[in-house]
Write a structure and sequence with these properties.
Elements lengths: L2 H19 L12 E8 L4 H15 L2 E6 L9 E7 L1 H14 L5 E6 L3 H6 L3 E3 L12
Antiparallel strand pairs: 1-3, 1-4, 2-3, 4-5
């Protein structure tokens, strides 16, 4: 199967899965398998971001990704990803809101639809930025 064909099949699966889980036009939260919180920083705040992410990993048991000192994926700033289960995220997000120290945080669910998760379901702590969604096709 070609990459284009595989992509088309994946899009159909996502659409069918989403439609099957919609109830009265509302999506059911059981499609969320986890969350990502991306802590944005620059050269002046890199140490602060690294410390915040390490504290979050230590306190909540979330997975801390690499600290990227370049733009990665759709993210318009340097960032570090925190991956959390839905249960962990329920505690992590309020903690980040109170402890981010002026850093911007972009969080989104993991539902199997990367474009919608980033474009439609994102949560911003601080001033929101425009994401480069072209990577999602």
């Amino acid at each position: 199967m070609t990459a284009a064909c595989t992509g088309s099949v994946r899009k159909q699966q996502i659409a069918q899965s989403t439609a099957a889980r919609n109830s009265g036009g509302r999506k059911q939260t059981d499609i969320i398998t986890g969350y990502h919180a991306h802590v944005y920083f620059d050269a002046d705040t890199a140490a602060q971001a690294r410390s915040l992410c390490q504290q979050a990993a230590d306190q909540f048991g979330v997975s801390m990704g690499r600290v990227h000192e370049r733009n990665v994926g759709p993210h318009p700033r340097w960032s570090c990803q925190l991956a959390a289960s839905p249960e962990q995220f329920a505690e992590l997000l309020p903690w980040l809101a109170l402890n981010r120290g002026g850093l911007m945080v972009f969080a989104h669910p993991e539902s199997g639809d990367d474009l919608a998760d980033h474009r439609d379901h994102g949560i911003w702590l601080g001033t929101g930025l425009e994401l480069d969604l072209s990577i999602f096709g």
